[in-house]
C-alpha cells in the first residue's frame, strides 16, 4: 500500500474543508468517519479535540498530536455600505489574505462567498494603494451578493461573530509540489492518517501504546492543554517545519525541532527522533524556530508531566499561501513509522 500518496490525497481533501479555529466540527466529523473505517476506538473531548487509541494495553503511551484548526477570521462588524470588517483568528499578516476569495459561515448554517479587498483597492482611483498599511481598518470583505447597506446584509442572516474561511487554492503539481493554504497543519493531519492506516494494516507495528490527538484550538495557543490520557508519558506534535533564512529545513525533508519560542524540546526525544531519521535513511534537518509554538507546549503549560517533541514536513511561506513537496510528506511519515518501532 502506498501510504505516502494516500496521505497526500487526504491532505487535499482536508484542505477543502473549512476549519478556522473554533469552527472545526465538520473536519472532526470527517476524521471520525475515517477512523471508524479503520476500526479504532476514539472519543471527542468537550473542547472538540478528537482522541484516537490505535493499539495495545501497555502503559507508557505515546501521543502524536496534529491540529485541524487553521487561520481564519470572524465578522467584526457590518459597514453601512454592506461590506464586512473582520477580526483575524491566528497570527498572520493582513497582506497575505488581500484579494483572496473567502466564505462566510452564518450561525444558521448558511454560507456566502466574497472577496477580501483593501478599502482602497484600485490604483486607478487611489494614490495610496502601495503605501496604505494593511490592518483591520483597511481590509474588508466584499460579498458576492447585491447588497448596498447594513440592512441588506442583515437580511442575509450575516452577523458579527460569524466565521470567515479563506479559499485554500490547493494544487498538487506533476512534479510533486503541494501548494495550498492551511498545510499548517493539514499536512500533519494527512500524515497521521497515513500512519494510522499503516498501523491498521500491520505494516507498522509500534513497540508502545499509541494515541493520536487532533486539536481544534492550536492557532490560539491551547489546543492540547487538556484531554491527554493518563497513561501517556510522551507527546510529539506533528506540525509544519518552517522554512526560511538561517534554517536547515527545506520542502523536500522532514524537520526535527530542537527549540522554538517556548524553549528547548526534550533532549531524549529530539535525540531519538534524529536516530530514527538516520535509521530510516530519510532527508531531515534539525532546526530552531524563533517565532513558533506548538500544541505540546500548551500541554506542558497546563501541567502535564510528559516528555515532548516536534517533527513535521518542511513548509515554505508559513501562515501564507504555503508549499511543500511529496518528498517531505514521505520523509516525515517514514520517520514516524521508524520512531514507533524503537524501544
Automatic annotation (TrEMBL):
Q: What domain of life?
A: Bacteria
Q: Which InterPro entries does the protein's record reference?
A: Peptidase_M42, Peptidase_M42_aminopept, Peptidase_M42_dom2
Q: Which residues form the signal peptide?
A: none
The family classification in the record reads: Belongs to the peptidase M42 family.
Query: Keyword set for this entry?
Result: Aminopeptidase, Hydrolase, Metal-binding, Protease
Q: What is this protein called?
A: M42 family metallopeptidase
Entry-linked SUPFAM superfamilies = Aminopeptidase/glucanase lid domain, Zn-dependent exopeptidases
